[in-house]
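Sequence, please.
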C-alpha cells in the first residue's frame, strides 16, 4: 500500500477565509460506498508546506496500514483559487475529491450547492466526536445536520504593550469600556502612538463588541434570516467599537480603512499600544522588536471577569456528496482530525484544536495559548450560516457600516438601519 501527494500551487492559507459567491452544483449523492481504491483528498497549500505535509503523510501511512487496497492521493490546492476549483468539482463529479479541507465561512454556500455530504451520523458514531467543542461544531451545522468536522479554530484576543501601559499609568483593561479609557490615556501620554490599532474594515475585531452588548448580525428564524444590526443592543456595541476610531485613540484618517492584518501590523511595528489579533498572529509579534514587552489577554466583556464572544474562524474537513467511498472518506476525515493529529497539527503549525480536552492540554503546556483557549471556552460566535452571507460579505455591507460611521458620513442609527435594510433585501431575495 502506498500514498501519493501532488503539490499544486503554493499560496497563502488564511485563518479567516474570505467567502466566495455561492457555487452551483449538479451533483447527486452517490449510491456506491466502495471500501477500496484511491481516496482523493484536497487540502490547502501553505507558505511553509513541510510541517503540514509531515503530519498528513504520517496520517496517510497509518490509514493505509489499516485499510487494505486503499491508496490516498492528496492534492494541495491554493486558497485563493478554491472558488473555481470547488465549483468545477461540484458540477463534474469525475473531477471531485472524496475529502476536502474548506473554510468554515464557505460551508453554507457549499451545502446550498449540494456539494457536501451529511456527516452527522459519522460524528455521532465517532468515539472522539463527543469531545468536540460544541460551539465550534455548530459552525458545521445547517438545519441540524453537520457537513464537516472542524479541523482547527482561530480566535482573537487583546494584545497590549506592557511598557506603554505602565508608562501611561493604566492597568490592563478588564472591561470593554476600560479598553477605550486606557487607549485614550496612552495616546495622551504618547501622541505618536495609536492607543489601540483597530479599523473600520476589521470586522472580526468589531464583532466581539457587538456580541458582548447583546447584539447580533442576524437572527435565524427557522432558516429565514433577519438582520439584527439595527437593534438597540447592536447599536450599543457598534457605538462602543467606533468610539475607538477617534482622533484621540486611533484617528479615522489613519485607521478607517484598517482591516485585521493592517491593525496587527501597526502593533508589530511598534506604532500601537494595543490591538485585537489572532492566535495565528502570535508568532509574528513574538519575533518583533518588542517581543519582551507585550502580553495577551482575552478581549474582556462588559463586566470585569467576563470575556467577549469571539468570532470562531477556522477550517473543516468534509466529504463530497458525489464520493463513491463515503464511509472510507469519513474514516479518513476522522483520522486526520483525530485528537492525536490535532495535537500534531498544533505542534507543527500552531493550529488550535477543536476538541475541548485537547485545547485544555495545549494551554497547560503552552502558556501563550491560554488567552485564546480561555476565549474559546467562554463561548464563541459566528456569522449567519447561510449562503447569502457570502453575498453580504462580498458587498462589504457589514464593514461598510463601520466605515460610514468612523468617517463621519453617517451616524450609528442611520448606518445600522441602512446596513440592516441592505442585508434583509439579500436575505429576502433567496
Amino acid at each position: 500500500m502506498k500514498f501519493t501527494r501532488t503539490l499544486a500551487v503554493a499560496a497563502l492559507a488564511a485563518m479567516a477565509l474570505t467567502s466566495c459567491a455561492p457555487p452551483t452544483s449538479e451533483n447527486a449523492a452517490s449510491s456506491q460506498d466502495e471500501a477500496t481504491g484511491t481516496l482523493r483528498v484536497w487540502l490547502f497549500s501553505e507558505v511553509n508546506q513541510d510541517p503540514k505535509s509531515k503530519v498528513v503523510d504520517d496520517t496517510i501511512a497509518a490509514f493505509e496500514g489499516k485499510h487494505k487496497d486503499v491508496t490516498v492521493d492528496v492534492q494541495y490546492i491554493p486558497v485563493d483559487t478554491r472558488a473555481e476549483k470547488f465549483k468545477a468539482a461540484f458540477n463534474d463529479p469525475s473531477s471531485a475529491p472524496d475529502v476536502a479541507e474548506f473554510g468554515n465561512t464557505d460551508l453554507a454556500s457549499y451545502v446550498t450547492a449540494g456539494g457536501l455530504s451529511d456527516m452527522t451520523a459519522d460524528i455521532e458514531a465517532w468515539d472522539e466526536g463527543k469531545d468536540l467543542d460544541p460551539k465550534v461544531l455548530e459552525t458545521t451545522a445547517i438545519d441540524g445536520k453537520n457537513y464537516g468536522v472542524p479541523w482547527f479554530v482561530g480566535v482573537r484576543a487583546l494584545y497590549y504593550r506592557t511598557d506603554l501601559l505602565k508608562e501611561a499609568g493604566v492597568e490592563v483593561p478588564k472591561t470593554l469600556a476600560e479598553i477605550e479609557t486606557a487607549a485614550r490615556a496612552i495616546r495622551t501620554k504618547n501622541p505618536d502612538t495609536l492607543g489601540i490599532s483597530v479599523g473600520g474594515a476589521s470586522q472580526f475585531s468589531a464583532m466581539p463588541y457587538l456580541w458582548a452588548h447583546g447584539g447580533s448580525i442576524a437572527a435565524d428564524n427557522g432558516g429565514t434570516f433577519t438582520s439584527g444590526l439595527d437593534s438597540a443592543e447592536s447599536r450599543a456595541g457598534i457605538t462602543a467599537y467606533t468610539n475607538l476610531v477617534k482622533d484621540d485613540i486611533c484617528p479615522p484618517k489613519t485607521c478607517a480603512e484598517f482591516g485585521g492584518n493592517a491593525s496587527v501590523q501597526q502593533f508589530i511595528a511598534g506604532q500601537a499600544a494595543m490591538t485585537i489579533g489572532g492566535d495565528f498572529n502570535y508568532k509574528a509579534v513574538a519575533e518583533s522588536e518588542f517581543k519582551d514587552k507585550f502580553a495577551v489577554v482575552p478581549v474582556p466583556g462588559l463586566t470585569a471577569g467576563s470575556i467577549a464572544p469571539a468570532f470562531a474562524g477556522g477550517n473543516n474537513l468534509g466529504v463530497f456528496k458525489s464520493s463513491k467511498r463515503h464511509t472510507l472518506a469519513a474514516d479518513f476525515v476522522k483520522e486526520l482530525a483525530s485528537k492525536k493529529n490535532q495535537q500534531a497539527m498544533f505542534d507543527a503549525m500552531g493550529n488550535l484544536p477543536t476538541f475541548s480536552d485537547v485545547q485544555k492540554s495545549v494551554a497547560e503546556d503552552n502558556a501563550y495559548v491560554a488567552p485564546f483557549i480561555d476565549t474559546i471556552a467562554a463561548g464563541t460566535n459566528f456569522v449567519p450560516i447561510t449562503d447569502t452571507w457570502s453575498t453580504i460579505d462580498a458587498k462589504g455591507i457589514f464593514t461598510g457600516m463601520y466605515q460610514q460611521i468612523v468617517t463621519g458620513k453617517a451616524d450609528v442609527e442611520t448606518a445600522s438601519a441602512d446596513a440592516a435594510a441592505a442585508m434583509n433585501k439579500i436575505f429576502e431575495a433567496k
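The chain has 19 helices and 15 strands.
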